[in-house]
Design a protein that fits this description.
Shape: elongated
Number of domains: 2
Structural class: mainly beta
Distance between the termini: 30 Å
InterPro entries: BBL5 (IPR006606), BBS5/fem-3 (IPR030804), BBS5_PH (IPR014003)
Helix content: 10-25%
Keywords: Cell membrane, Cell projection, Cilium, Cytoplasm, Cytoskeleton, Membrane
Number of helices: 4
Strand content: 35-45%
Subcellular location: Cell projection, Cilium membrane; Cytoplasm, Cytoskeleton, Microtubule organizing center, Centrosome, Centriolar satellite
Strand order of the largest sheet: 1-5-4-3-2-8-7-6
Family: Belongs to the BBS5 family.
CATH superfamily of the largest domain: Pleckstrin-homology domain (PH domain)/Phosphotyrosine-binding domain (PTB)
Number of strands: 20
CATH class of the largest domain: Mainly Beta
Main location: membrane
Radius of gyration: 24 Å
Oligomer: single chain
Length: about 325
C-alpha cells in the first residue's frame, strides 16, 4: 500500500480511486494548486490516507500526498493568479532525500478558506494519533499494569493465549499472546513493557515451522515495517496450529475490509452525488487553526487591533474567524 506513504504527481486517474478501507472525509471545489498550477481551478479531496488534488479542466494534472509524508501544515499569504494576495494553506511534505512544499488556495468564501485549512489539519492530527492501527510497535504502552490490553476504538479481542514463549533470546521469554480483529499482540508476563503489536496490514506471513526450540509459530512482517521475523513457542502442538490458523483467518478478514484508524460519524455525513462518495463536512471552525503559527518568521505579521468587547488590543484574526469562536469548547 503506497497511498499514505508516497507523494505522486500526475498519475493515471485510476490511481486516484479509493482503495478498500479508504474513504473521503471532505471534498472542496474551486481549490487552486497555487505553487504548481497557479491559475487552474481544481478539486481538493481529503481522505483518511492522503490529500488529493486534480485540475477540473484536466484531471490528469493531479497530486496525491500521503498523510505519512506530511511534515507540517501552515496558513500564510500567497499570490494567486485568480484571487490575488490571499490566505493559503502551505503543506510541507517529506520524501526520501528531498522535501516538497505545496500551496493550496481556496477560491471560495471565507468559510471555504477556513474549512480547507481546519479540516486538513484535523485529519492530519487524527492520522498521527492512530498509528497503532497501521504500524508495528515494540515496547509501547499497549498493555496496562494489570496485563490487560488497551483496546483501541473499533477493536475487539478475539482470543487470548497464555504460556506463549517469545524466542527472540536464547532462553526465551514467557508471555501472553492476544489476537484481535485488528492486530496480534504479545507481551512478557514478568514485564508488560516488553511487548510487540503487529497490525494485520503489516503481517506478510504466518506459519508453523521447525526451530531449535521445536515447532514454532513464525510471523514475518512486511518490508514497510522492517521485515522482522518473530518466533513464538506454543504448547501443545495442536494449540500452536490452531493459533496459526486463527491468525491467518483474522488477517484475511482484515485485508478484505481494512480499518486504518480514522472513522467517520455517519450522522455528520451526506452523499456526494457527483463523486459517489460519502463525505464528512466540517461542522465548526477549529479554534486551534486560528492560533496556528504563520511560521517562525513572518514578513507581514498581522498587527494589533482594538477589540471593544475585551477592551484590549488583540492580534488581528484571519478571515473566517471570530473572537467568540475562540472561546468555544468542543468535546468530541
Amino acid at each position: 500500500m503506497w497511498q499514505d506513504r508516497e507523494i505522486r504527481f500526475d498519475v493515471d486517474t485510476r490511481m486516484l480511486r479509493l482503495i478498500p478501507g479508504e474513504f473521503t472525509l471532505d471534498r472542496i471545489e474551486n481549490v487552486e494548486d497555487t505553487k504548481g498550477n497557479n491559475g487552474d481551478r481544481g478539486i481538493f479531496r481529503i481522505t483518511n490516507l492522503r490529500l488529493i488534488w486534480h485540475a477540473q479542466a484536466m484531471p490528469r494534472i493531479n497530486l496525491s500526498i500521503g498523510l505519512n509524508t506530511v511534515a507540517g501544515i501552515q496558513s500564510k499569504k500567497a499570490s494567486s493568479k485568480i484571487k490575488g494576495e490571499t490566505e493559503s494553506m502551505y503543506v510541507t511534505a517529506k520524501a526520501p532525500q528531498t522535501r516538497f512544499e505545496f500551496v493550496f488556495t481556496s477560491l471560495g468564501t471565507a468559510q471555504a478558506v477556513t474549512r480547507l485549512f481546519s479540516t486538513t489539519q484535523s485529519i492530519n492530527r487524527a492520522y498521527e494519533t492512530t498509528r497503532l492501527y497501521r504500524e508495528l510497535k515494540m515496547r509501547g504502552p499497549i498493555v496496562d499494569e494489570d496485563g490487560r490490553l488497551r483496546i483501541l476504538p473499533g477493536e475487539q479481542q478475539v482470543d487470548k493465549i497464555d504460556g506463549v514463549w517469545n524466542l527472540s533470546s536464547e532462553q526465551g521469554n514467557l508471555g501472553v499472546m492476544i489476537c484481535t480483529n485488528l492486530r496480534v499482540v504479545w507481551f512478557a508476563t514478568m514485564s508488560v513493557g516488553y511487548n510487540v503489536s503487529i497490525p494485520y496490514m503489516q503481517l506478510a506471513n504466518c506459519r508453523v515451522r521447525d526451530s531449535k526450540f521445536g515447532l514454532a509459530l513464525v510471523i514475518d512482517t512486511t518490508p514497510q515495517s522492517g521485515e522482522y521475523i518473530l518466533g513464538f513457542r506454543i504448547d501443545p502442538e495442536e494449540k500452536l496450529k490452531n493459533t496459526c490458523r486463527s491468525i491467518n483467518s483474522l488477517s484475511k478478514a482484515a485485508s478484505l475490509k481494512p480499518f486504518f484508524g480514522i472513522s467517520k460519524r455517519e450522522s455528520d455525513t451526506h452523499s456526494d452525488e457527483e463523486s459517489g462518495e460519502i463525505a464528512v463536512r466540517a461542522t465548526r471552525v477549529d479554534a486551534f487553526a486560528a492560533y496556528f503559527s504563520d511560521g517562525l518568521v513572518s514578513s507581514e505579521p498581522r498587527g494589533p487591533v482594538f477589540n471593544e468587547d475585551l477592551g484590549l488590543a488583540v492580534e488581528q484574526l484571519r478571515p473566517g474567524f471570530s473572537l467568540a469562536q475562540l472561546w468555544e469548547v468542543h468535546v468530541e
